[in-house]
Write a structure and sequence with these properties.
This is DUF6884 domain-containing protein. The protein is of the alpha/beta class and 263 residues long. Helices cover 41% and strands 18% of the residues. A hairpin with a 3-residue loop joins strand 4 and strand 5.
């Protein structure tokens, strides 16, 4: 079994420094960044250890469980950084502060193009895999510039905020899962970390029950039902959160709703 996980960087990190890299440093190019990394060598950490934000923490619970319990499974974990572009989780990074969130749309897209983010994402998602998880917020999805021409190498679950889900193309192997306030309550996790929480739970289930892969590959179902608390029966305007999500994905792809929360 080969799994692909693409997640975003987080503002919270294991180490910081007054001399840490900033967006202006990354604008100087890879050679300059490499020079600065040498100056900060004692503070460099693998990407999967550097980030300490809620989404990353919750995701890594599942990643570690899968590594420990299912050693025959290949899990490729990538992190989308606004400074370092898409990097493997094992890649050592210097402490830095950079985000797509503070950029206007035109500037964001120009910087993402300069980093090669859209091309990197297309290449990664085109590779053959049994299941992929994409866990990105609005600005990071904007940086990816996903279009109808994107070729997916396997079934892909994309967790995102409701508004962004409306603008994503419908692809044969793509299951977009817009997360709403009811989901945060249902899974007892703040929206900022919910994508990592849900992917982490699904990875844990796969670690102990690899036969669930077939159900996750069936993109018609709601994968969150596999990890929902037994007593979860929260409603949104009379609908369960899963029904609200399915209703959104089937009927309201082109219409906004105030109860949909962005991430």
């Amino acid at each position: 079994m080969r799994l692909l996980v693409i997640t975003s960087c987080t503002g919270d990190k294991a180490v910081t420094s007054a001399d840490q890299l900033r967006l202006d440093d990354f604008h100087q190019g890879p050679a300059y960044v490499a020079q600065r990394e040498q100056q900060l060598a004692d503070l460099c950490h693998p990407a999967e250890e550097l980030y300490t934000g809620l989404q990353h923490q919750r995701l890594m619970r599942g990643v570690r469980a899968l590594r420990e319990q299912a050693r025959d499974v290949t899990l490729d974990l990538w992190v989308l950084s606004a400074g370092y572009r898409l990097v493997l989780a094992a890649r050592k990074l210097a402490p830095y502060e950079a985000t797509f969130a503070n950029l206007g749309r035109k500037e964001l897209r120009a910087w993402a193009d300069q980093l090669g983010v859209p091309a990197d994402l297309q290449r990664l998602l085109a590779e053959p895999y049994d299941l992929a998880f994409v866990l990105l917020g609005n600005e990071y999805l904007e940086a990816c510039q996903i279009t109808a021409e994107l070729c997916l190498g396997g079934p892909t679950l994309l967790f995102c905020g409701g508004t962004k889900a409306q603008s994503l193309p419908k692809l044969p192997k793509l299951r977009t899962i817009p997360l709403v306030n009811a989901d945060a309550k249902r899974f007892a996790c703040a929206l900022i970390g919910l994508k990592g929480e849900l992917a982490g739970r699904l990875l844990k289930r796969l670690a102990s029950e690899p036969e669930l892969l077939a159900r996750l590959q069936d993109l018609e179902g709601d994968p969150l039902e596999l990890v929902a608390p037994p007593s979860a029966s929260n409603t949104t305007g009379g609908q369960s959160s899963s029904n609200a999500r399915l209703s959104f994905s089937k009927k309201d792809h082109d219409a906004g709703h105030p109860w949909l929360s962005d991430q």
